[in-house]
Amino acid sequence: MEKKRNIFLKNKKFTVYLILALGIILVAVFAPLIATQDPGAAVLTDALKAPGDGYIFGTDKLGRDLFSRVIYGTRASLPATFALVGSIFLVGSVLGIVAGYFGGWVDAVIMRIADMMVAFPGMVLAIAVAGILGPSIINAVIAVGLVSWTKYARMARSLVLKIKHEDYVEAARVTGSKTGRILCRYMLPSVLPTLIITASTDIGGMMLELAGLSFLGFGARPPIPEWGLMLSEGRSYMQNAPWVMIFPGLAILIVVTVFNLLGDSLRDVLDSREDS
């Protein structure tokens, strides 16, 4: 317990960003208690009202409370982003470890598939996949995931290649250790720290990509209060009702910044622990 406490005390930046990230997650969990109104309730007579008069962030074109929609937006954006990062982390790590350890035709097949994925601009390919699957937040996660797992696979493969011929791995093979035990006992621990750091720093970027797909009409669909979709809906009112875009944009900016800083501070924590 004392060691854990020392980790947080020695890494104050990490502690601060972790608290902020947990605060954002708690906003998503307790959104019904924080939101002042039903995010889907439309009051056309109050359409495009400026902040104030009972509406903290103003209203959108349908008279829906923007503050409540921004708060509920955490429930749409965070789970989708975490599901995306978790899936590409899992798939990429497994495929990369398998490719690096077994080599041969297994490595060739997995890496050629990865080469095919990176041969096209990632966002363009994600838009194409999302367009084929149809607009929805789930399809957006699938589309971005299909083009994003390659980084984790290549990273895991390169890390496994560095240690697969080390003496302790060869000794494990000679003593009759099963392949599964070698992968879990030696390969996985060697790649996890780097991949965890990469995943934590990717949270912000993946959230931006999902918001971008929703902005372009390939992600979340109305009336879901998703930040990228809210930005898209507010484009037509940028001049006479700028708050319709300002507050969802600020929400994206704040959340992406917090998780990017959390990822950077986590890297510093893990690097300092490895050095010690």
UniProtKB/TrEMBL annotation:
One of its GO terms (biological process) is transmembrane transport. Its main location: membrane. The chain crosses the membrane at residues 14-35, 82-106, 118-149, 241-262. InterPro entries: ABC_transport_permease (IPR053385), BP-dependent_transpt_permease (IPR050366), MetI-like (IPR000515), MetI-like_sf (IPR035906). PROSITE patterns: ABC_TM1 (PS50928). It is found in: Cell membrane. NCBIfam families: Opp2C. Belongs to the binding-protein-dependent transport system permease family. PANTHER family: OLIGOPEPTIDE TRANSPORT SYSTEM PERMEASE PROTEIN APPC (PTHR43386), PEPTIDE ABC TRANSPORTER PERMEASE PROTEIN (PTHR43386:SF25). This is ABC transporter permease.
